[in-house]
Amino acid sequence: MYKRILVPLDGSATATRGLEEAIRLAHALRAKLHLFHVVDLHLVYMDYSGTAELTDYVHALREAGQALLHKAQALAARQDVSAEVHTEECRTAETINLILQEARRTHADLLVIGTHGLRGFQRLVMGSTAEGVARLSPVPVLLVRGQSA
Predict the structure, then answer these.
(1) Is 38 in contact with 66 (CB distance < 8 Å)?
(2) pLDDT tens digits for 35-61?
(3) What is the rounded CA–CA span in Å between residue 132 and residue 145?
(4) Which letter does DSSP use for residue 147 in this model?
(5) Residue 52 to residues 4, 80, 107, 122, 137: CA-CA distances in angstroms?
(6) Which of 73, 65, 79, 101 is nearest to 29 (CA)?
(7) What is residue 5's predicted lDDT score, i.e. its pLDDT?
(8) Looking at residues 108-131, what average pLDDT do you find?
């Protein structure tokens, strides 16, 4: 059964629901979690107008990602689930590829990801990381829907 579960986290309520489901699975299966966060810098560099100190903002994004992962790791530990954390940075819109690379790097045998439940024009315009991951993943993917979806 599943022994290494990858959980991409972005700080959203839906991602938290995915984390909670992954923790339940990991606990039941005695699996290990791999918690992953992409520090998305591509909009920062694409839209930099020079009005703020860029290095401070990038540093804050990195710290927020680490805090998110450590909070998730503590939540897993309270349920007696072991979890490793890892971040990657991207300066282009390559989040899906980074998640898939992380699945390969960690030898994940399951990927648990929250969906935002977007429909219609919003989905068309914004795209869907979860959909792309599910479509391209080399391992099974459990999609966890948000409460309002």
Answers:
(1) no
(2) 999 998 876 665 555 555 677 888 899
(3) 15
(4) T
(5) 41, 43, 40, 30, 38
(6) 79
(7) 98
(8) 72
Determine the 3-state secondary structure of 35 from DSSP.
Answer: strand
Q: What letters, b where the CB count within 10 A reaches 16 and e where it falls short, cover 106-127?
A: bebbbbbbbbbbbeeeeeeeee
The residue assigned the tokens 């919003």 is 122
Task: Name 121's Cβ contacts closer than 8 Å, sequence gap at least 6.
Answer: none
Instruction: Return the residue matching tokens 């992962």.
Output: 69
Three-state SS for 30? coil
Q: Which H, E and C letters describe 90-108, residue by residue?
A: ECCCCHHHHHHHHHHHCCC
Q: Which residue has the tokens 């990381």?
A: 129
Query: Quick one: tokens of 112?
Result: 């648990």
| Residue type, position 10, single letter | D
* Phi, psi for residue 115 in degrees, rounded to 5: -105, 155
Hey, what are 107's tokens? 């030898």
Cβ atoms < 10 Å from Cβ of 63: 11
